[in-house]
Amino acid sequence: MFQMLCCSRHGAAVLPGWRSCCLLLLVLLRCWALDHRPGGALTVVESTMGGGGGTGDEDPEATVDDDDDEDDNLEVLQPNEHWQTLKPGQAVPAGSHVRLNLQTGQREVRLGEEQLKYWTQEHREPSIDPDELKRAMKKMKEEMKSQDSVASRFRPLEELKKDMAELDLLVETDVQIMKRLLEQFNSSSSSTEQRLSILLELEYLVHQVDNAQTLCSMGGLSLILDGLNSSDIRLQENSALVLGSAAASNPVVQVHAVEGGALQTLLTSLATAQQLSVRKKVLFALASLLRHFPYAQRHFLSHGGLTILSELFRADVGGILRTRIVTMLYDMITEKVLIFQAGPDPVQDPSHEERQRQYAQVSLQEELMEKGWCRLVPQLLQSSEHDYREKALRALLAMAPVCLDQYRSDPSLLGSLHSLQLQYLELVRSETILGDDSSYFTEMVELIDTLQVKVR
Ligand SMILES: *[C@@H]1O[C@H](CO)[C@@H](O)[C@H](O)[C@H]1NC(C)=O
Ligand SMILES: *[C@@H]1O[C@H](CO)[C@@H](O)[C@H](O)[C@H]1NC(C)=O
């Protein structure tokens, strides 16, 4: 899809006249062929799976290697906005949100929040329907035939080849685009507005695993980190967005970024940023950097990350940051639990032991308890948003192994659970009477019940 868009953006649009018609056809054919190569790196599944390492997936088999060939054998579950149970051996596209259902022990997947937010909404691309494309090409062929039958049908092969060669020159590859963008970004003559639009283009490009790695190898990360440290709020925000998108499910970028000092820069900027919009995006970048990366998680903890997060949590009255923080912590807890859990699918992964060893050094749960999170997370239950409460309940369950004593002696938590239970039972009842789907509220009741049983 992307290649197609790229071709039409950077190739065909610049050519005039009849020639452009012919070239456009060639471009379209070329793009279409690229996009539909069965084993090509540009098909949707391939491009989402291409990173191999740490897609949103918790499956160790799908998270370790970068080998594209391996991925061909994986069955890929396409997530939507509802939770679906992940069967053994199934993989999910990068950025999906995978959780462990603590009641059933099964893994469930849906579209990741950042995917939903940053991709579906802000980046809704004009998609090109293959049928539409075929119709357009057919029409073009007919027009060309009627215009100039002999000349167009019997053009010398050499001439066609020349057109093809010109095309290669005209179609700017992603690598060339990124090189140009980074040079412009780095140029002292670029204005802030120009830098902002460059960041937007980069953010779009780095969703592709290869592009994000190219950004690293071109030294782009340090420019992005400078942007994060800039005094301009919009530059900070958009730099964080580029960093987060590049690091998401991309182990190579994660390693580069942490080596380049991204963790410290992000934590500093999280501690100092005043605007919610900046905090949100920096938090997104931080979460991308930490996911499936125990080394970074350990350094996050030793650099006082939890203290900074708890300050943010306390200061956030609206609840959106609280929810994102709690979700991020929940993801980190379950990711570690899954590594140590003998999953439903046998693990044939030689690096598994090493990963267990690395995760063993991340004492997240203990630190959460020491830094007061057993008392903090329950505060999120007081939100009026179902979704926020759900996140809180899941996190509370995940933290239960270290927090139970504190839960038991927390009258406001016990009170919240009791009143939420009544509220959701009532919601289930009224939805059922109305004949509406009550499954979400039923799930909430079950979460509350499970937690109450533990606390009892
Ligand atoms: C940015 O420009 C400086 C010189 O002005 C150069 O040393 C540096 O390598 C450039 N960085 C990138 C990523 O192009
Ligand atoms: C960020 O900017 C401050 C000054 O505004 C500077 O002291 C610090 O070294 C910069 N950090 C990075 C990583 O560039």
- Low confidence ranges: 1-72, 117-126
Number of helices: 26
Task: Tell me the fraction of residues in β-strands, as a range.
Answer: under 5%
How many strands, which pairing sense, and closed or not: the largest β-sheet?
3 strands, antiparallel
Q: What is the radius of gyration?
A: 25 Å
GO molecular function: adenyl-nucleotide exchange factor activity
Subcellular location: Endoplasmic reticulum lumen
Main location: endoplasmic reticulum
Function: Required for protein translocation and folding in the endoplasmic reticulum (ER). Functions as a nucleotide exchange factor for the ER lumenal chaperone HSPA5.
Tell me what the structure shows.
InterPro entries: ARM-like (IPR011989), ARM-type_fold (IPR016024), Hsp70_NEF-Inhibitors (IPR050693), Nucleotide_exch_fac_Fes1 (IPR013918). GO terms for molecular function: adenyl-nucleotide exchange factor activity. Keywords: Endoplasmic reticulum, Glycoprotein, Protein transport, Signal, Translocation, Transport. It comes from Cyprinodon variegatus (Sheepshead minnow). It holds the Pfam family Fes1. By secondary structure, this protein is mainly alpha-helical. It has 26 helices and 5 strands. The protein has a domain at 37-122. The chain is globular, with a radius of gyration of 25 Å. The protein starts with a helix and ends with a helix. The relative contact order is 0.07. Helix 13 (220-228) packs across helix 14 (233-247), helix 14 packs parallel to helix 17 and helix 24 packs parallel to helix 26. It is 68% helix and 3% strand. The strands form 2 sheets. The chain has a 3-stranded antiparallel sheet with strand order 2-5-4. The structure holds 2-acetamido-2-deoxy-beta-D-glucopyranose (2 copies). One 2-acetamido-2-deoxy-beta-D-glucopyranose binds at residues 182, 186, 219-220, 223.
